[in-house]
Structures are given as C-alpha cells and as structure tokens.
Amino acid sequence: MTLPVSHGSNPLLLIPLKKFGNKFCIQYTGDKPNRYSIRGEIVISLDWTLLLQFFNFFVLLFVLNKLLYRPLLDIMNQRREKIEGSKTRALELENAVDEKMQRYQQQLQVARSDAAEERAVLRKAGHQHETQITGDAQQRAVVRIKGIREQVGKEAAAARLVLNTEAKALAGQIAAKVLGRELA
User: Which tens digit of pLDDT belongs to each residue from 27-37?
Assistant: First the structure.
C-alpha cells in the first residue's frame, strides 16, 4: 500500500505504508534518504493516537467556535446590520431632503409668480397714478395759461388805452411844434 505525497518543489512521491504488527506506519524512503527519511524512523503511526488527535481537533474546533468564531460572527452580523440600518437611514434622510427641496422649489416658484403678479399690479397702478398726475398737471397748466393769457390781454388793452391816450397827446405836441402853433 502507498500514500501519494508532495514535498516542497519536488514531484509527487509515493510513500509506502508499512504494516508493523497491527499498525500502518509511514516511512520516508525517497531517492535522497537524508532529505526525506528521518534515519529510517517511523514518522506517523496510524494507531489510537490518531483518533485522539481527531478528537482533540474537534474539541478545539468546538471550543474555538464557542469562544472565538461565533462571537466574532455575531459582532460582524451586528456591524453589518448597523451599517445596513445606517444606509437605510441615510436613504430615508436623502429622500426627505429631496422632498423638502422639491417643496421649497415649489414654494419659491409660487413666491416668484406672486411677486411678478404684484409687480405687474404695482406697475399698472403706478402708470395709472402717473397718468392721473400728468392729466391733473396739464389741466392746471391749461387753466394757468388761460389765466395768464387773460391777464396779458387785460394788461395789453390797458396799455393800448394808455398808449392811445399818450399817442394822441404826443401827436398834438408834434403837430403844434411842426405848425408852430397850438391846436385846439
């Protein structure tokens, strides 16, 4: 009976299993005895100690599972759940922020449209007020110009009257000087 084994970079060796009494033992017998064999001694013996080593391995596996692996896996699961919860919370917050931003944009749009309407109303009212003020000013100007024209007309008539009277007197004086005598 042989057991296939690879050692380092060397090719696969077939190691014979020899029976010593009721045990099977492995002994290295390669092409380089100093490297693969330990002075012809038995390296691994296949007896009840192998079962004891398996039992020790499973006990160690059980103990490590209880003391190390499960607590570590529990911590990792808690961390994963916490991370997923944080991601879910972040997504909820992001959605809430997006929703608030949409509401803000809508309110801003409504405020802008209200402001534009108010501005238009104020412009119209301002234009009407301007038209009223300019109309009133034109009417006052027309009334004042009319009053000034009447006053100028009265003053011109008074001045004509005075000038006519003075012109007659002046004409009489000129005629008296030209004729050398006074006119009656």
Answer: 544 444 444 44
